[in-house]
Amino acid sequence: MIDLKNIVVRFGEFEALHRINVDVKEGEFFTFLGPSGCGKTTTLRTITGFIEPVEGVVSMQGRDITHVPIEKRNIGIVFQSYALFPTMTVRDNIAFGLKIKKMKKDEIDRKVTEIARKVDLTDEQLAKAVSQLSGGQQQRVAIARALVTEPAIICMDEPLSNLDAKLRVNLRNELKKMQREFGITTIYVTHDQEEALTLSDRIAVFNKGYIEQIGTPNEVYNHSATEFVANFIGDINKLQEEITGKLNLPADQVHYIRLERISVCAAENDGKEAVSAGQTVSLDGVIESQEYYGLFIKYTIKTAGQTLKVVEKNDGINIYEPGDRVILRIDPKDIMSY
Amino acid sequence: MQASIAGKQKYNLGKLWGIFGGVLFVYLFLGFMVIPCFNTLTSVFRETDAAGNPDPFAVIRFFFAGKMPMFLWNSIRLALCLVVTVNVVGISIVLLTEYFDIKGAKILRLGYMTTLIYSGVALVTGYQFLYDQNGLMTKWLADFFPGMNKQWFTGFNAVLFTMTFACTSNHALFLRNAIRGIDYNTVEAARNLGARPFKVLLKVVMPTLLPTLFSLTVMTFITGLCAMSAPTLLGYNSINPEIVRLAGSSVADESFPQARAALLSIILAMCTIALLLTLNHYENKGHYLSVSKTKAKLVKQKIQNPAANVLAHIYAYVLFLIYMTPVVMIIIFSFQNWGNVRNKVLDPSSWTLSNYFGNQDYIYQNWKGKEMVSKGAISGVFGNEKTLGGIRLSFIMSAIAAALACVIVVIAVNYIFKHKKKKRGKLVEACLLFPWLLPTILICYSFRTFFNSNVFYVFGQNLYMKENVRILIVLAYMVVKLPFAVRMIKAAFYAIDDELEDAARNLGASQIVTFLRVKLPIVLPSVLAVFALNFNALFSEYDMGATFKKAEGTTYAMVIQSMCEDEGRNNVNMNASGRRCASTVFIMIISGLILYLVYGVGARDLGERLAIREKRRKRLEKIKRKFSIAHAAAEELPAAERRNIA
Known about the structure:
The complex is a heterodimer of chains A (338) and B (646).
Chain A lengths: L1 E10 L2 E11 L4 E5 L6 H9 L6 E6 L2 E2 L10 E4 L11 H11 L4 H14 L4 H4 L8 H13 L5 E5 L7 H18 L2 E6 L2 H7 L2 E6 L2 E6 L1 H6 L4 H6 L3 E3 L2 H6 L8 E4 L3 E5 L14 E12 L3 E8 L2 E8 L11 E6 L5 E2 L1
Parallel strand pairs in A: 3-8, 3-9, 6-7, 7-8
Antiparallel strand pairs in A: 1-2, 1-4, 4-5, 9-10, 11-12, 12-18, 13-17, 14-15, 14-17, 15-16
Helix pairs in contact in A: 2-3, 2-5
Chain B lengths: L1 H42 L14 H8 L2 H32 L5 H8 L7 H12 L4 H9 L10 H12 L2 H12 L3 H9 L4 H29 L3 H6 L4 H9 L9 H29 L20 H28 L4 H6 L10 H4 L1 E7 L5 E9 L5 H34 L4 H15 L2 H11 L17 H27 L3 H9 L4 H29 L3 H6 L7 H10 L10 H26 L4 H40 L1
Antiparallel strand pairs in B: 1-2
Helix pairs in contact in B: 1-13, 1-19, 3-4, 3-7, 3-8, 3-10, 5-7, 5-14, 8-10, 9-10, 10-13, 12-13, 12-19, 13-19, 14-25, 17-18, 17-20, 17-22, 17-24, 18-20, 19-20, 20-22, 21-22, 22-25, 24-25
């Protein structure tokens, strides 16, 4: 569908993208994820044509569009600020692209009404000024405006970042539902890993102008390709020498384990040493502190010369207090080594 | 292939337009800013001695030998005194209406803000009318204090008094904004820590106002230095009136008058530049601003000490009287007949509209005792050809100049934003701000002298000749108003989110369509406001017109003024003073209307406009419903009556 080959973008002396390669498939929800300044928005703007790469080829449906002007690309975009035109009503905002295409008035009216219904905007809302709508409604207008011209692809640049936490989760689900209904290829930019994991079919993790990994949410989370990806996505423990020694892990690498991959149980009261069973290694630990999240509890546990973070489901049975002695179990196959 | 050729042609066309725009800009900048002003500045060094040999320092020697430093000193003295008096009055009016709890603050504010619609020559002549030795107020005051000097309102005193109250408009606008931006939590915190209200004012409130006060002080100083109408009309020998006098003088009367005018202009320009650089340097540092995130609205402070409270109220209302008396008197006298106005007597039993619409003959006896008729000698602002001509000319010239300034600035600022990180963007901006560095009078004087010969780049025309001077005045008006337009319109362009342009382009709009349909509508309210404010200032301006001093370019304010100068002479212009009152009222109405349109209506966004429209629609429906109910009831009544009869 859309293919980026060896894309290089420079701003003066600064090279923002170093030979980026991405291939987004038809109908896919593809996310660019990374910290701010990593090049994800630059890549998106290269696809939409706001930035022209100094090297490399952008092609869409097999056609080279590297030098095609912005307005001829047929790629929709939803901006971080929504970029709704403040001097136009909601209806005029949505109709803008169609008017530019010099469509007939009744055709425009039909299309606007149709798309408004799909994104849940009422006729009354269509007559309002943009400033009279809430954040969530504005976002729907932005999506409607981008979709009404029937683009081949829709790009979204952190469209949820201006909203409060609760609305963000609601709209996230709505967004995914809409994408599934419209079946449109979507490229989504975010720095929020939770958003990326819940929404995407595939994720490209960016860092300093390079792509570190492209994969499904599961691949990226559980089989992080690089140390950066492991650290950036989710919470993780870096294992120190004492534990890696017990696990017989190579000393020339660094080793990580996800919080939920360590299991905890109460220590035997007789004070016996923890015994390892099979491949699993057991470690003695003492609860240092507890963070209560409701759905789960995060413990910081002192063990084998370091502290480890562990999450346990809040099942109401095993709740530990600071100072409690516990046994930790680690399975070597859960370790990610770099 | 065809598409790429078409694209190339389009690109070439765009490039061609770019080159055309660039060349035009350079032509205008060099031709109407740099060359005329440079010509003035260098004329100082082009003088010759008696033998005809070049003597570049003759004017400078003359400057130190003659009484020219006196003009400079007078201007500086005025500026220094104004800084003190304007700040005292300006800070007072803002604190009294915004910070302290004074009864009737809303009405007081309206009174203090009258200078926004009542300024320039109109204001000076209004003050003169009330306070000169035969003035109404002076007469009343003399009745109270028989020993007082009836001629107190002349020269320096008169100029200082008038300008003190005339120049507080900036305080009323900017200091008010600054005081409204104060975080009330800081005031509460200080009180909570044990500070008394006066201490809070001094230690917490005033320091946050300092940056604004500094800018206002510099602006006041420049205003004092470049004062024109007040010194001219009230007779004070400061720089600007002298420049204008010298510009119109001839070599036959005195030594190199033009070069001396130029030298004074240069001195004025250097002072302005130094002050503006100071201001710029200070603004760039810009600290002191409140950093608290949630600002609490200021609650007005009650003055606890009863005696102080009474004194503050008296002070507030005395200031109010000083501001309002000229306005009220001018309005009243605009409806009095010419005799009353000229004798400055208020006759509550006789009122007339002749100062507005009159066109009556004046019958008098000549020295032989023969009855004579002076046709149309008593005529109103809208009743005599000459003032109507002045209004028409000023209207057209101001409108064209204000519109041109807006068009040029909108296109230029769009360019500046597109190239804001590049040198050419900054260069264009600097060019447009250039007139700000030079006193208005220098620019007008330069235009007058430089274009008073056949200049090759204006098609070999003499632009000072006959009707051509109107083109020159329009150009001067436009040039002078560019910096203000740039500052305001640039601020408006900052409000355009970059993503809006990207969005429009992404939806298929070309650059020109994006500009016209997305960016322009956003900045349009600001552009119209700038147009209105510039038009407002130009329509009633006097200083520049007076510098050109040309029969074909006699502006509205000049007509009114010159008619007053020969009021009653040869039995014409009998009601010139009354007509001037009416004209002032006319200008106040226009200015007030424009300010209302700009700050009231123009400041509403689409949401507010739609909400107001909706409200109006609902109100109309309600009235209709009521009407239809009443109508139905009226129809039902006879039917019921019929039934009763049956």
